[in-house]
Amino acid sequence: MNDTEKPADTPSEEEDFGDPRTYDPDFKGPVANRSCTDVLCCMIFLLCIIGYIILGLVAWVHGDPRRAAYPTDSQGHFCGQKGTPNENKTILFYFNLLRCTSPSVLLNLQCPTTQICVSKCPEKFLTYVEMQLLYTKDKSYWEDYRQFCKTTATPVKSLTQLLLDDDCPTAIFPSKPFLQRCFPDFSTKNGTLTIGSKMVFQDGNGGTRSVVELGIAANGINKLLDAKSLGLKVFEDYARTWYWILIGLTIAMVLSWIFLILLRFIAGCLFWVFMIGVIGIIGYGIWHCYQQYTNLQERPSSVLTIYDIGIQTNISMYFELQQTWFAFMIILCIIEVIVILMLIFLRNRIRVAIILLKEGSKAIGYVPSTLVYPALTFILLSICICYWVVTAVFLATSGVPVYKVIAPGGHCIHENQTCDPEIFNTTEIAKACPGALCNFAFYGGKSLYHQYIPTFHVYNLFVFLWLINFVIALGQCALAGAFATYYWAMKKPDDIPRYPLFTAFGRAIRYHTGSLAFGSLIITLIQMFKIVLEYLNHRLKRTQNTLSKFLQCCLRCCFWCLENAIKFLNRNAYIMIAIYGRNFCRSAKDAFNLLMRNVLKVAVTDEVTYFVLFLGKLLVAGSIGVLAFLFFTQRLPVIAQGPASLNYYWVPLLTVIFGSYLIAHGFFSVYAMCVETIFICFCEDLERNDGSTEKPYFVTPNLHGILIKKQLVPQKQKE
């Protein structure tokens, strides 16, 4: 077969997947005369954005992020907030921590005991009765004890009156601040849990309690604070390392830019750099895991324990286990073997991918503005993410303080009812339930806005995902228009119009906002279904059986496949929109039919090219990750001194690695979109033209020859 002959598809294929394109002497690339497409979806999209802006403004008015940052006492006052009487009282103190074993802790998310703000935690055992006996000899005992009482407390009340007024705790014990709250200062002595060398203590009500009971109560509160504990520590690490993270991400951006520029000149050589670099980085990870494993093996054997019987679950402790590093080593070995096997078995197809990358390099060289476009995408995505986070925080902290009745004994018929703390002691509830408290529970309200806050959270997430997918779709359509303009120019670069990327971006915004919103809406709905599935899995985790878990795994797999298939079809639909300016459904149909008519070419080009680019992304993320690991673990003192006293060094490390990968993905996606657009245009070119003088191909002879050659190989094998 000579170069002018086109590989024939069977008649059944043409009938099933539409008629091939025919020669059109007036077709010169992306159509200039267009009209607006998918107008209804565009209007819905704009209305959702307007509603999203209004929601953000309303949340801004009603929300208060301080409620998430400061602990709150029983009166709803913040501990440690500047400009308030509690400015110097930054720690929350529980009057009777033993009450936190009540089932109402999990029901109301609040411990049923009075809570006040204090400046420090107790340092010794002392009951209120003992303090009264010592007060007659030394007034200083009351001065020490009153720090943990309300301002109206006096040292001369009887125990019965004290319990009724609830002005002071009946007993205090050695504690230490943890998450701005006073928790028992546990220690172990000969394997036994103690507080201040004691295993039992007086509770102030005439009873003797065990330290283990106090530990169980503290653990009950800890279940409510675990997530906040991790969040605060992560926030502290980010506060200490944010500028180093930005430096690492900047280096990743520069490195990605360098690789993109080098791909134009040394694509083949750079592929070997990608391959050797990725294999070397994974090999370094295997070596480091082995070193950690052997080092831990030499230490005395120890049993994994939870600090303070669950009061603090230190995630870093898992990195002190041999099993952790052994598992990491096995995983990295498997990845290393998979990468090497893929390189061996795909070596011929990789050559085709390198030719496509070289052709893409020429296109990017003639349209250099495409290298800057990822920066615009990052800016738009950052705006969407920041708006979503801020709106979510203000929604979560919206409302006014809500107080509820809490009965320590749990036998009050009015328990969990709303109340007013200022008049509570004069109400019938206080008389019907002696000892009941009116404590702060949460922030909320009875207005229409407060009733629909959960719905607003869902809407916030939905529009956020829609906007993210729309920004990605806009970038893909704009890049496709620019690269299609390059391909359909007969004399390159003379026939390429000025500012092709700007023109394609303007067309996408002006005419095809509705079509891009339509395509991104489909992806968003699938992602929302996946989130709902994960939510149900989390809520029903304890009640699941083997069959339900199997079905959930099948659903996850199906949705993952569906999402990736729709994303692939959407990308090609956006290319057709950029070229012909038709609506989304028509463009998706045309793209699908075109790909199916050229399915053999798709098999030898598309995924292999993505694999080569994936190696480049791994190299960028891996290189920056290794440097970040050495830096945050204080192993590069010669170059720079890393931040000290981090709670979790892996927090900035994973942020740098993940951020570097996203940056590399953004830049390399320009190449991926370029190759995919060139491939779609190539398939159209083969159908429109035959390579003769009257109907010349727009594709370069080198690319035409290798794609046709690779397509003929499987055809001959069939014959």
Automatic annotation (TrEMBL):
The chain crosses the membrane at residues 39-61, 242-262, 269-287, 325-346, 366-390, 463-488, 608-632, 653-673. One of its GO terms (biological process) is transmembrane transport. It is a multi-pass membrane protein. This is Choline transporter-like protein. It is found in: Cell membrane. InterPro entries: Choline_transptr-like. It catalyses: choline(out) + n H(+)(in) = choline(in) + n H(+)(out). One of its GO terms (molecular function) is transmembrane transporter activity. Choline/H+ antiporter. Pfam families: Choline_transpo. Belongs to the CTL (choline transporter-like) family. Keywords: Antiport, Cell membrane, Glycoprotein, Membrane, Transmembrane, Transmembrane helix, Transport. PANTHER family: CHOLINE TRANSPORTER-LIKE (SLC FAMILY 44), CHOLINE TRANSPORTER-LIKE PROTEIN 5.
